[in-house]
Amino acid sequence: DVYKRQGTVRIVNPEQTGQGCTVRLELGTTVSTVHALLVQIGEMIWALPGEVARSILLLANSDCFNHQGRPAFWYEEEPVALVHLADLLGLSEAQRGGAKATGTGTNGALGSGRADQHACLVIAVGDRQLGLWVDAVLAPEEVVLKPLSPLLAGAKAISGATILPSGNVCLLLNPGELLAQAKQQVGLGGPMAAPV
pTM for the complete prediction? Predict the structure, then answer.
């Protein structure tokens, strides 16, 4: 399987006996592993690099306020903008459908079936932070990441794809691009709607 992925296996013996050996496995850059945090919107599961996740919150409507024309909440004594991840991804109402997770389930999901509570993933890239409203935050996973086809090169918010243990394809999102899109959405589209 290593050779199918255009990789190599090298065994390096030290000059002295009894010192063991080194086995070097090299794979092409088309395959890498990523520690990802999975989130759910409707029936679809998306992944974000685990290193950008700062916190997972269950926010009540009363935790949110209007800051500079957009929903926000206090996090570490600073206002953080809230955005529907579905809005940033341009998902249709049909794609947003599906049952929301309730409470914390055995699969590690954090979500809310209550109309006054919403799962929020706080991400940070550099000194910029953003709260992403999602239906549920699932357990983190180590995933094998494949780059996107050149046909999808224009999808800046997506940096790769993986296959989950369930057999479903999951897209890895680009957090820097999500922050850029959120800034553009606020600047061009006015205030963002609160979750319903």
Answer: 0.72
